[in-house]
Design brief:
Elements: H1 12-17, E1 19-22, E2 26-28, E3 37-38, E4 54-56, H2 62-75, E5 80-81, H3 84-99
Parallel strand pairs: 1-4, 4-5
Antiparallel strand pairs: 1-2, 2-3
The chain binds zinc ion.
Amino acid sequence: MDHIRIWSEVDIGDIESHIVFVDDKFGFCPGCKELGIKIEGLRKCPKCGRKFTYVTARESKGPKGLEMIARIIKKLPHLTFVDYDDYERATGKKKAAGLFNGI
Ligand SMILES: [Zn+2]
């Protein structure tokens, strides 16, 4: 199976509140900062109950990263994989816009 990045218009706030950060084995909930969450079949945070619909991984660059993304997608086929750089850029942009609100 091949994997490609598909661009679409999204509500970054919705992604921010339903995303889980993962590596090959474990997940991190940005909501309650829980570490070491087992990722197989992961649908919500075991600690705070946050529902996950998106997943991203920091170490997902280069050919090794692609293999890792493929493994994550296999383990979490019900989640949408979001490109980490895209996510950082979009949330960073949102934060920057927030800084200038009210000026
Ligand atoms: Zn949580």
